[in-house]
Specification:
- The protein is α+β, with helices and mostly antiparallel strands and 358 residues long.
- It has 2 domains: 191 residues, Immunoglobulins (Immunoglobulin-like, Sandwich), CATH 2.60.40; 144 residues.
- It is 16% helix and 36% strand.
- The chain contains 6 helices and 16 strands.
- Strands 1, 2, 3, 4, 5, 6, 7, 10, 11, 13, 14, 15 and 16 form a 13-stranded mixed β-sheet that branches. A 3-stranded antiparallel β-sheet has the order 8-9-12.
- A hairpin with a 4-residue loop joins strand 10 and strand 11.
- The longest helix has 16 residues.
- The two termini are 39 Å apart.
- The N terminus is likely disordered.
Length: 358
């Protein structure tokens, strides 16, 4: 959810500086243009739609963005999701607005964070269309996408009770088979541990030790993809990210049995194109086009308007594994991590919680 909100904030800033169009004109006339974001994720129960408005004024954009009235409509908004086959609507779900999801502080107003939520039944055999009705038909904005299915992780093997990352000069391999219609894959590996505080509290922690984003993955669902990271880099990452200066920590424990979490996220062509268009330019020319697949429907009362945003889909699959005694010993006594207060594999917590015999 945080990634979606970050994308929204960046795009809203672009809109503010460009008067809601790709040509920069500080004297352009303001138009009522919505910014709508919906990324369907079949792996999740709840789906979310974000509805904002573009703003323009004589004050600095950062100052106007700090006021929630600049970002949100003060009128009736109805959000629906349609399941379609061709041009035929087969089923419709109505989404409800909530303000209970907190927004991180920053340039954009955080006192209000209205998001429309729903629990539709998603099926990859159909197309899905979001419809946002603003001010009883004054503006009707739409966008549609097809769904992607999740990839299948083949390594590490889900049937194996543990994995080992004990030898610094070895590599660790992650393998997966992409699903159909995938244009973007992101692989993340997280290390999960517990901090035991001096007051007796146990605080769960998680840090990312590997990340890889791949564009234009082969659409052949039978072709396996392999990614590799160095075991030595894993230990270096632990040493760099775990704060050893916290005096309230008396001990750290590798969380059992979910020590390592491997996540593969797949995305469709719409999200792929959006990220390609909006990624930072490496050339001298810094002008970037605005990608949107949200449009104003002809049934709107406001003719000739524009809408911005993204309607896309993704799917996330995860696999958690325990680490073996060799890895626990390396974390406890190794040259990179022996100062981080992880006990050896003989600690009672590991003996009690390990999901394997040795």
């Amino acid at each position: 959810m945080n990634r979606i909100l970050l994308v929204i904030s960046i795009l809203c800033l672009i809109f503010a500086l460009s008067s809601c169009k790709s040509d920069f004109d500080v004297n352009d006339k303001w138009q009522d243009s919505p910014a709508i974001f919906c990324i369907l994720d079949k792996s999740q129960d709840m789906q979310y739609v974000k509805v904002n408005k573009c703003f323009l004024g004589n004050l600095p954009a950062s100052e106007m963005a700090s006021v929630s009235d600049s970002l949100f409509y003060d009128c009736d908004i109805q959000v629906k999701l349609h399941r379609k086959q061709g041009n035929t609507i087969l089923k419709t779900w109505e989404f409800r607005p909530v303000d209970s999801i907190p927004k991180e502080s920053g340039y954009f107003a955080s006192d209000r964070n209205t998001i429309w939520v729903g629990k539709p039944d998603l099926n990859a055999d159909y197309t899905y269309e979001v419809e946002v009705n603003i001010d009883n038909g004054r503006i009707i904005a739409k966008g549609e996408t097809k769904l992607v299915d999740g990839s299948r992780i083949t390594a590490p093997d889900a049937r194996s009770p543990k994995i080992e990352l004990a030898r610094y000069y070895n590599d660790f391999s992650i393998k997966y088979i992409p699903s159909d219609n995938v244009n973007l894959q992101e692989v993340n590996v997280n290390f999960n541990y517990l901090e035991i505080k001096s007051n007796g509290d146990t605080v769960p922690k998680s840090i990312q030790v590997y990340n890889n984003l791949s564009y234009r993955v082969s659409s052949n669902s039978y072709t396996a993809v392999e990614q590799v990271f160095g075991v030595g880099s894993f230990y270096s990452s632990l040493a760099a990210q775990i704060n050893n200066d916290d005096a309230t920590v008396v001990k750290r424990l590798v969380k059992m049995p979910d020590c390592m979490t491997f996540t593969v996220s797949s995305a469709d062509e719409n999200l792929y194109t959006y990220m390609q268009v909006t990624k930072p330019s490496s050339g001298i020319a810094q002008d970037r086009p605005i990608f949107t697949n949200i449009y104003i429907d002809e049934s709107s009362q406001m003719a000739g308007g524009a809408a911005y945003g993204l309607m896309a889909s993704r799917y996330t699959v995860s696999l958690s594994k325990a680490v073996g005694s060799e890895t626990l010993d390396s974390i406890s006594r190794g040259i990179y991590t022996n100062h981080l207060m992880f006990p050896p594999w003989t600690d009672n917590y590991y003996i009690t919680h390990k999901p394997y015999n040795k």
